[in-house]
Amino acid sequence: MALASRNDPAPLRALDTCTQVANVVGSLLIVALVLLIGADVLGRNLFSAPISGVPEMVKLSIVAIVFLQAPQALKAGRMTRSDALIERITNRFPRLGGAMETLFDMLAVTVVGAIFYATYPIFIKSWSRGDFVGAAGDFTAPTWPVKLMILIGAALLLLQFLARIARRYMRGAHDPV
Amino acid sequence: MTPFEIGLMALGGMGVFVMAGMYVPIALILMSFVGVWAIKGSPLLAAKMLGLAANDAIASYFFGVVPLFVLMGFLVSESGIGRDAFDVANAMFRKIKGGLGVGTVAANAIFAAVTGISIASAAVFTKIAVPEMRRHGYTSRFSVGVVAGSSVLGMLIPPSLLLILYGLLTEQSIGDLFLAGIGPGILLSVFFAIGVVLMATFTPKFTGETLSAGDEKLTGRELIRKSVPLTVLILVVLGGIYAGFFTPVEAGAVGAIGALIIGLAKRSLNLAALWRVLVETGLVTAAVCFLIIAAQMYSRMLAFSGVPNAFGQMAATADLGLMGLILLYVLVVILMGMILDSSSIMLILVPLMLPILNPMGVDLIWFGIVTVVAIEIGLLTPPFGISVYVIKSTLDDDSISLSDIFLGAAPFALMMLMCLALIIAFPVIATGLL
Amino acid sequence: NATIAAGHPPVFRWVKMLDEVFVPAVNTKLEGTDHSVNFTGQYGGAIAKVGEELEAVEAGLAELGTCQALFDPAKMAPQNVTYYTPFVSDDVGKVSDLMHRLQLEDANMQTSYDNNGVVYVGAPIVIDDYLLMTNFPVNSLADLEGQKIGAPGAALNWLEGTGAVGVSGNLTTYYNEIKTGVFDGVIVFASAALPGKLFEVAPYITRAGLGAQYAGSICANADWWDGLPAEVQTAMTEAAAETGDWYVSNLEAAVTGAFEAMAGAGATITDAPQDMRDAWAAGMDNAAKAWAEGIPGGTEVLSTYMEEMRAAGATPLRDWDKE
Ligand code: NA
Ligand code: NA
Predict the structure, then answer these.
(1) Testing the interface with B: which of A78, A101, A102, A120 to mutate, by most B Cβ within 10 A?
(2) Which long-range contacts (CB under 8 A, 24 or more apart) does A29-33 make?
(3) Predicted ipTM?
(4) What predicted TM-score, i.e. pTM, was given to this entire model?
(5) What residues does each domain of chain A span?
(6) How confident is the model over A145-175, as pLDDT tens digits?
(7) Contacting B residues, span 330-349, partner chain A, CB-CB under 8 Å
(8) Least CA distance to C154: which residue of chain A?
């Protein structure tokens, strides 16, 4: 599934690099979660010093983790699909198969675009009003970084779907899938 | 068109797109978008629904621990702890026909005692058991089927995130629910093991014509060396939960740290492996959670159409007596399991049923176990079966198609149905330990 | 047609009131007029989870919803004033009346609704007096020293200075967490403690007068509301007022019943001695002041609320607004 990206033009390579960076940030967030909960459990039981706001942080970071890594999951062929039928079609009628794939990718671009479009005002609102989770006086964390990561993830995902279309037509109809 | 008809069409549309090869989450999101657009008459409102669900659907503490349980699973796998458990289980069953399959079931039942979610079980044993079974002559279809089937044990044998969710909805003691899950978990494991042996004996075309036994026998010393690490991990996780050091939800992180320490102590983990595990965890988490987000959008669209409510009302208002009601309920749960994710089904149906069950004096602990087993059948049924999707995503092998996995898992779904019938007929299987 | 969104399932009183009181009341009031509203309840997170209702109503996905200010501490900041001012009043009716009036009259409260594209309809969701429920007897603050006490978000501030270790917790898991020993006790209210069977694991119930709290109310999408005929708007606000009255009396009866049932089940219910209450209140940081200074109009909201409560006959243990 992984296509040789060495032959890709610069914009596609840049996109893949960004996707990978997002993936790394997402992975580091998982480490942070493990450490945070571990420290909270230890602190609470050994030193009577729980860490404030752990549930809130977990709640915020899971969304960021998913959106930051979804583009790489698509790129690495991990996004779930049932490809038996479409592969059969592509083997017998390559053009039809390619057209179907492109149609599906364009529909994906549309709905991921809708998510981006609807999240943008949510991000702006969160940013300009300083929305937070938690309780003043105890623990608060701003919500805008997560909204921003959803935007970044959705944008990368959208571009990766476009890149699938671009690669399909650059490769031409002759190459095997 | 009425919203109800739109809802039904969206159900059909999802099936068509998924079979035609569209990415499953995209098909779900697309049908949610089109469905809400058609029901509410506004594409802008439909987009807003997607946006809100994307931001909030998994923004909760309970979903937050999904990557932790997956990470723990992969650490168990990478550090060789899972492999050891698998070897031990195989050593016990190597003389039996289909012994490796039985070993997979047994190892899964043991692993279930540390994990709270089935997708972690599915991911871990895809890596450990599938290559091994195929090497020993099992068909690909059967190998992934065994893994998919036995993965459901992860949420039946405690700890279980699904039982926690049920406890939250019904205000039942989570500790009691956990205890009640043990009996059915063991019963289902036994069912699976017997089923594997019977299939290996009577349907060799399905399981594989020439099955060889697992690798050579273990000495007593090896047996101990290999079973100690996982035993320690189970003791830490379950002991910690029951001693009040941490909650079942926090157990994911504690288990991950424990597996990491054991792996480092065994010198089977290094930095490069650790990073690989982490990235892998991220990819599986993203694929699965993105699917859950999409499924929740879909479930919200269906809520607007009134379809699930109509099904639920049907089950709730049918005047059938208790047994008839439970059977109809199970049927509705299984039907919903084909198209919705586990937590959505629970969130839709359980609150609908509660007011009807309460005056009938139904044991809500028993009802919880019935609910969880029925919902878990949905993990294995097409078109939306999350355990199957996780296996496909973890396998990363184009020679095994989604339908292969669904077909391989089908006998296990049937066995779950039989086990469910027993739990309904003999509640003591669930409530005996209370 | 109107969709009503609630994140909680209908077992909760503030969801039950929608189908049992609000909807029939609106229908009755509109009988004989040219108007009628067809309500669909989407509860238990079917279209919006707990804390997400405000956004769903704002977006227009639901026309009405239970806007839970408690779970939206930033968007509905002034509405959270009660959670920063403990030891003011344990009278559910008093808090309900005043908060209802403030939602309608106070400019800062109004701003929250305007900024989020929603309109206040009524029926304040008030939580009955918060209690201390523990698995050990409490006679003085010293008894709390080093104990792990679970409490929801803002109420963690209440444990500052008591010597107890405040751990953020969730109502729904308290039972299990006290049973296994993750918590030694919790801060919770009687109407939830009884159905949650908390008295089984934490049989020592101490009433310290932490106070009744405002959590949210029914709100409506602003555009939809503005497009309604005046007759329908009136029917809804009047129905909401009846719903609020039903809620308060139903809650008060439930609280009385809960204490009786818990006492009958062997729980030890005590009123904290006055010196313990005084010491508790005196030892706290003034989180209300810090909170008020951190949000627009906060200081004004704080003093209005405290003034009005005192005028209504409440005797706060601390004048949070005057320090
Ligand atoms: Na488990
Ligand atoms: Na399914």
Answers:
(1) A78
(2) A29/A61, A29/A64, A29/A65, A29/A68, A30/A65, A30/B67, A30/B68, A30/B71, A30/B278, A30/B281, A30/B282, A30/B285, A31/B278, A32/A61, A33/A57, A33/A58, A33/A61, A33/A65, A33/B64, A33/B67, A33/B68, A33/B253
(3) 0.89
(4) 0.86
(5) 10-171
(6) 999 999 999 999 999 999 999 988 887 544 5
(7) none
(8) A135
